[in-house]
Amino acid sequence: MQELSIISYDLKKCSLTERTAVQRAINGYKDYSYNQKYTYIRKGIIDEIPNIYLNNGVIIIKSKDKSKITNVLKRYKAHIKVINLYSKKLILH
Predict the structure, then answer these.
(1) DSSP string computed for the chain
(2) Half-sphere exposure in the Cβ direction for 33 (13 Å, CA)
(3) Whole-prediction pTM
């Protein structure tokens, strides 16, 4: 049996700067320097852990990894809802 968590978050009450910071921390981003001559790929939390994106603001991850994402969301005061569930099939590796 696999322990999973569905994390749903809402960024409506956050400012545009905070939304961008949350999305960059979770998803990562491309960084350009010297008039786009050099490109750097900055990885986010999602790149490090197995996950399934269901929709905008809804992610399925392993329960042991949920604190990594919820800590970032709490730092920027996003509205978070976590649902814990069990799966008989191995969904995330």
Answers:
(1) -EEEEEEEEE-TTS-HHHHHHHHHHHHEEEEEETTTTEEEEEE-HHHHS-EEEEETTEEEEEGGGHHHHHHHHHHTT-EEEEEEEEESS----
(2) 5
(3) 0.84
Q: Are 73 and 61 in contact (CB under 8 A)?
A: no
> Which residue ranges make up each domain of the chain?
2-87
Tell me which CATH code domain 2-87 carries: 3.30.70
What is the C-alpha to C-alpha distance for residues 64 and 2, in angstroms, rounded to an integer? 11
Q: Which pLDDT tens digit goes with each residue over 3-27? A: 999 999 999 999 999 999 999 999 9
Alpha-carbon distances, residue 49 vs 16, 30, 57, 72 (angstroms): 26, 19, 16, 15
Token code pair at residue 2: 């696999």
